[in-house]
Amino acid sequence: MTNDSHILFETALRMRADTVETELRLLLDDRILPGEIVRPAHLMAAMRHGALNGGKRLRPFLVLESAALFDADGDAALRVATALECVHCYSLIHDDLPAMDDDDLRRGQPTVHKAFDEATAILAGDGLLTHAFDIIADETTPLPAERRAALVLALARAAGPGGMVGGQALDLDAERNKPEEAGIIRLQAMKTGALIRFACEAGAIIGGASTADRERLAEFGSAIGLAFQLADDLLDLTADAETMGKATGKDAAAGKATLVSLHGADWARSQLSGLVSQAHALLEPYGERAIMLKAAASFIAERNS
Amino acid sequence: MTNDSHILFETALRMRADTVETELRLLLDDRILPGEIVRPAHLMAAMRHGALNGGKRLRPFLVLESAALFDADGDAALRVATALECVHCYSLIHDDLPAMDDDDLRRGQPTVHKAFDEATAILAGDGLLTHAFDIIADETTPLPAERRAALVLALARAAGPGGMVGGQALDLDAERNKPEEAGIIRLQAMKTGALIRFACEAGAIIGGASTADRERLAEFGSAIGLAFQLADDLLDLTADAETMGKATGKDAAAGKATLVSLHGADWARSQLSGLVSQAHALLEPYGERAIMLKAAASFIAERNS
């Protein structure tokens, strides 16, 4: 990736993030929807604290760009993108809890249980997760019921016990029973990979793409999900705390094996380059329309924060 | 309610509970579904511990009986009933956590964080909540996508920040800022009422009932939800720990005001009788078909455990 295209991509990412942030703010305000009784101000404030955290909004970006490949309805894609970000943010809130990673800071800000309290953080995570399914299933999300149901199912499966939550459970075990290489790969495919895979697959579902296209996008998502994790592990070894805005070297300190700690940084860089080529190849059928998604794959592999 | 009909109802409730238990066991086993990677054994065991707890399965019962009013598909109703029970059980697991109610026992068994650990309990709750939406949205649940999406939406709204989770947040506040009567009613309508209302409304959705029927069942659900909470508060004041299988007098000890503590036991009994009459009246249009639901309303108001 040239420096120019890096800058262009980051600008596009930031623009999308602004749109997602606005939509999140709208969906997480204190106004009630039909069927709701009241949205307690304190809970909603905690949910917003956890969700409006200045993240890069990479997963929503992938939903929006994948959807664009199939000329999907933009409003529908934005809804699904926002719902996915709610799920991602819920997982961070629960991950940061004292009983889990016990983190005080997230992107330089106090984590939800620090800014509020532990009970409120648990409920704020529960609220974001539940609300994500509300957003997708809502009949004001301009999609046929068939696609809304398919998206709920795909998201629930990516986030559930056979996906992200299962990955978090494996991660808890990993500190006690060091997994072998296959175990690490599986853990990461679940903990971080499943939602990134869903992000890319979702675009195809929203756009009513063929099963073949849906599978192709899901495979692209798996490749960049793996790249994302490798890049993260590489950064954990090499970056300093200032660049990352969070504590680094934590995996090593926690005695967690990663593929990078097993095989070294050079191996990781060569793997990353292979994954980017594979991801780009998967997008060949879409030609120029896939430029932004290809740039996303490169960005994920090359990012330094 | 005569003693005979009480016994008949309890037998029916227990039979339904067995069916729900079997379905829960099936849906929460270690076999993976398409799209899942692996279901970590430890996490699934914790989810089962929290879900297969010998509960009365009152909410599933209400789904099944409401659905029967409209000749709904029995398999579909059982799926939705089981999904709702997953949501109920997730809320108990998170409610029992040290940061929340800090309970060691639930139905005489160690709570999930006691039997496993706190992190696993948080994830088990998250897993049950997520899996509930999977069960409903799954295309093997024999319902048109339109109804699956409507059920996901209604459940997410009943369980979300404007429903159950919001009620739990209000409950946390209630220990600090004692709410007035209107505040207590709202808190209870959210914390326990919303899911019971959903249980009854769900039957109408599953059966493809008219909007008027759907609203009537929802209203029935609200009436018995309120009755459920009043009966619970009454029991908290009067029952001994042995009958309840959990600590009693906890509300008073926690300084929590309830409608019963405000107005007394006699007032509560008269309210309960009024709510049962109201609930029965709402079911008049369904004649003899509604006998089981009417018995449920009486049972809820008169239960002593």
From TrEMBL, chains A, B:
The keyword Metal-binding applies. The keyword Amino-acid biosynthesis does not apply. InterPro entries: Isoprenoid_synthase_dom_sf, Polyprenyl_synt, Polyprenyl_synt_CS, Prenyl_diphosphate_synthase. GO terms for molecular function: (2E,6E)-farnesyl diphosphate synthase activity; dimethylallyltranstransferase activity. Its cofactor is Mg(2+). It is an enzyme of class 2 (transferase). It comes from the Bacteria. Its EC number is 2.5.1.1, 2.5.1.10. Keywords: Isoprene biosynthesis, Magnesium, Metal-binding, Transferase. Belongs to the FPP/GGPP synthase family. This is Farnesyl diphosphate synthase.
